[in-house]
UniProtKB/TrEMBL annotation:
It comes from Pseudobacteriovorax antillogorgiicola. Its EC number is 2.7.4.6. The active site is at H115 (pros-phosphohistidine intermediate). Keywords: ATP-binding, Cytoplasm, Kinase, Magnesium, Metal-binding, Nucleotide metabolism, Nucleotide-binding, Phosphoprotein, Transferase. The gene is ndk. This is Nucleoside diphosphate kinase.
């Protein structure tokens, strides 16, 4: 059993897509082990995306992620990290495979509807960034 972090980004929450996105995870055998809606502070968004701080899109990414609430989830299942990435699709929605969340819903490479941890080690850090162990079922 693996755990991974998923975020429904502001563009997804703003367009009332929470239910459809959560369904995709459940239909594909992932279990929602923890879930909450939060409005990220600038400080939190900068810390969460610290790995990208030298990238040209960093400021825009922080503005986007803080403009309205997000839904954060801990997903659980066999091979959850890779499975979540598969369900999400490629970063750029134009390159995302048919049926993936980003292909279905994302507007651009920046506003791409969902975040998902990219590796098991990152997943551990990212889940702990948002959830106490006692909140994960
Ligand atoms: N991003 C962006 N412009 C880019 C590349 C990435 O705005 O050219 C944003 C986008 O929201 C992406 C996030 O930065 O999801 C993190 O980028 P990463 O390459 O880690 O993609 P992901 O793991 O989210 O697919």
């Amino acid at each position: 059993m693996e755990r991974t972090l998923s975020i429904i980004k502001p563009d997804g929450v703003e367009r009332n897509l929470i239910g459809q996105i959560v369904s995709k995870f459940e239909e594909n055998g992932l279990n929602i082990a923890a879930m909450k809606k939060v409005r990220l502070s600038k400080h939190q968004a900068e810390a969460f995306y610290a790995v990208h701080k030298e990238r040209p899109f960093f400021g825009e990414l922080v503005d986007f992620m803080t403009r309205s609430p997000v839904v954060v989830m801990c997903l659980k299942g066999e091979g959850a990290v890779a499975k979540n990435r598969e369900i999400m699709g490629a970063t750029n929605p134009e390159e995302a495979a048919d049926g993936t969340i980003r292909k279905l819903f994302a507007k651009s490479i920046g506003e791409n509807t969902v975040h998902g941890s990219d590796a098991l080690e990152t997943a551990k850090e990212e889940v702990a960034f948002f959830f106490a162990e006692s909140e994960i079922y």
